[in-house]
Amino acid sequence: AHLDRIAAVDGDVHAFLHVDPEGALAAARQADEQRAAGESRSALAGVPIAVKDVVATQGQPTTAGSKMLQGWIPPYDATLVTRLRAAGLPILGKTNMDEFAMGSSTEHSAYGPSHNPWDLERTPGGSGGGSSAAVAAFEAPLAIGTDTGGSIRQPASVTGTVGAKPTYGGVSRYGLIALASSLDQAGPCTRSVLDAALLHEVIGGHDVMDSTSIDAPVPPVVDAARKADVKGLRIGVIKEISGEGFQPGVQKRFEESLQLLVDRGAEVVEVSCPTFEQGLAAYYLILPSEASSNLAKFDAMRYGLRVSPDGVDSPSAEQVMAATRDAGFGDEVKRRIILGTYALSSGYYDAYYGQAQKVRTLIARDFAAAFEKADVLVSPTAPTTAFKLGDKLDDPMAMYLNDVATIPANLAGVPGLSLPSGLADEDGLPAGFQILAPAAKDHLMYGVGAALE
Ligand code: GLN
């Protein structure tokens, strides 16, 4: 049914870069047989899933939305994919994204943008717009995203779906094409909070292949989502990320959701995190710095594309590398590589990268102080509903500003979840409610999210 749905609507939505009907059907049949034999491997066995194209899938193309990796077929599975397969989830295919996960609209994909199923002239957010659009358009009941600065939560917000970024280290990064290694985290894109918790349980947990993986059991996320209990819980509204600067309709739905939590027995407190206002600036130095280093491996020798420079008879390795990186990377990727190498260069390191790291520490301290006063923190997920394709494409600053509410969680490594809060009055488009919990207490955000459904 999902393959039929993809065939019917993906021409318009363009959520997928690659669909694997044979592989998905074979896995689905196997899950059916196991269920018939009473040997189901998990609660989600047989439920199909779409995977963001930044995650390595053995035998299936993995491009990270870039020409640089066109035609690359990974010889191995990411750990989270191994876990999906082991739990019996058929993989429908790979979803569209901004190139190397840089962006907030999927418009930086080398393969053309995805469209928001609510209004095809609008973006489904980014970078993982393909995964959220697939879920919103009923092309897949579940999807995998990655969130470095909001790429699971912001697309969820503007497509009326659920997205969860686990605690840093909660889901193995082995087999993810790294954007910024200290910020990257994979997680679920779903239509309900309970679905997200079930998927989190499948992909989460310790992995020896990732040195930053947390060596502890997955927090009790499914239990918390089932109980959906907020009685006596202190909900902290972050003063700096709500109100001013947020679309009135988004803010209104946010406040109504808050009232719902009060009706269910929670207590609302206001918290102040003054350094969050510097979050965006710090992020857009730390991310390009790490990305410029991670992307150095695309050297025309090891993976994917290789381009020979025009009019050179026997080009040097350096000339081939330069020609390949010129042809293979899009403008946004080049912009960030230049920014990152500049911020890391001697003489500028202390002024830029060093300063940004200090801000990062202050943000973590603001979180720690806020979590003394509140059990979870909340805000709207994104400042606006889905914007029109093309609207922010030529204005990187406007694009970056989308991430103002989601970035602090990545800088501090804390988990965050976005779920729909309703449709904004101005445009009838979905708005998102974000819940942030202390590190390793992911279950708290699932409990609060489920109480709102
Ligand atoms: N919009 C952010 C960026 O462009 C988010 C990226 C992400 O989470 N992958 O960096």
From TrEMBL:
Pfam families: Amidase
One of the record's GO molecular function terms: glutaminyl-tRNA synthase (glutamine-hydrolyzing) activity
Sequence ranges assigned to domain Amidase in this UniProt record: 1-444
Annotated region (Disordered), positions in chain: 104-132
PROSITE patterns reported for this sequence: AMIDASES
EC number: 6.3.5.7
Entry annotation: catalytic residues: K52, S127, S151
Gene Ontology cellular-component terms listed: glutamyl-tRNA(Gln) amidotransferase complex
Record's catalysed reaction(s): L-glutamyl-tRNA(Gln) + L-glutamine + ATP + H2O = L-glutaminyl-tRNA(Gln) + L-glutamate + ADP + phosphate + H(+)
GO biological process, one term: translation
Keywords, sorted A to Z: ATP-binding, Ligase, Nucleotide-binding, Protein biosynthesis, Transferase
Family annotation (NCBIfam families): gatA
Record text on subunit structure and interactions: Heterotrimer of A, B and C subunits.
Function in brief: Allows the formation of correctly charged Gln-tRNA(Gln) through the transamidation of misacylated Glu-tRNA(Gln) in organisms which lack glutaminyl-tRNA synthetase. The reaction takes place in the presence of glutamine and ATP through an activated gamma-phospho-Glu-tRNA(Gln).
Family named by the database record: Belongs to the amidase family. GatA subfamily.
Record's protein name: Glutamyl-tRNA(Gln) amidotransferase subunit A
Organism: Luteipulveratus halotolerans
